[in-house]
Amino acid sequence: MATDRCQGRRSMPKIDAPTIAEHRANQERALLAAARAILLADGPQAVTPAAVGAAAGLARSSVYKYFRSGEELLTRIVTDSFAEWGALVRDTVECAETPAGRIEAYVRTTLTLAASGTHRIAVRGGISRDENGCATNAHAQHDMAAPLRAALIDYGISDADLTAALIDGALGRAIDLLDGGHSPAEVIPKAVAFIQRALGLTQHRQRARPPRTH
């Protein structure tokens, strides 16, 4: 009996936090951090429960208590990345006082974050291996552009969805240039000016400029 009780104690999982809920949250964060590191280093195909568990110091069987598959891990880290990126863009955009200013803030902030490498999780993990993951990623991308669409509507653009898609296409090409080694100091101002010209923002600002006082 004593032996059985001792064996039972040895089989209990080690808890490294004040509560089981906090322990689970810590383990989940460790797994997600390991998955991000593997994704950036080796690509989405390398994000497997075995590899992530080994990197986090957990057995593969323990990983399945939190995530059912490598695909679920990928979807989670990409969704989290879009959410974090979107929150940073939204906070900056909301500080601008005019629709034209919000559009510029969206473009400039998106490219500044891309230049810092913030986008790489979303880009590398964004090509999902199953239909549900693709749908989740597409929905996250659509949500992230919501501040841009709202600013376009406020500016008077009738086809805001199409225009936002075209702007994001231009931003994607600008991000490619940044990833290819072009200087942010060169790419970002030119991309901002290009989109301003395409939408007539520069002309709008000139018309809206108050008269000088002498």
TrEMBL record:
<feature type="DNA-binding region" description="H-T-H motif">
    <location>
        <begin position="48"/>
        <end position="67"/>
    </location>
</feature>
<protein>
    <submittedName>
        <fullName>TetR family transcriptional regulator</fullName>
    </submittedName>
</protein>
<dbReference type="InterPro" id="IPR001647">
    <property type="entry name" value="HTH_TetR"/>
</dbReference>
<dbReference type="GO" id="GO:0003677">
    <property type="term" value="F:DNA binding"/>
</dbReference>
<feature type="domain" description="HTH tetR-type">
    <location>
        <begin position="25"/>
        <end position="85"/>
    </location>
</feature>
<keyword id="KW-0238">DNA-binding</keyword>
<dbReference type="Pfam" id="PF00440">
    <property type="entry name" value="TetR_N"/>
</dbReference>
<dbReference type="InterPro" id="IPR009057">
    <property type="entry name" value="Homeodomain-like_sf"/>
</dbReference>
